[in-house]
Amino acid sequence: MQTTRLILVAVGGQGNLLAAKVLGEAALAAGVPVRMSEIHGMAQRGGVVESALVFGPGRSTIISDGEADVVAGFEPLETLRALNRCHSGTTVITNLAPLPPFTVAIGRGVYPDLDDLQQRIDGKVRRLVAFDAAALAREAGNVLSVNMVLLGALIGTGRLPIEAGRVRETIRDRTKAAFVDTNLMAFELGFERTMGV
Question: What CATH code is carried by the domain that includes residue 91?
Answer without folding.
Answer: 3.40.920.10
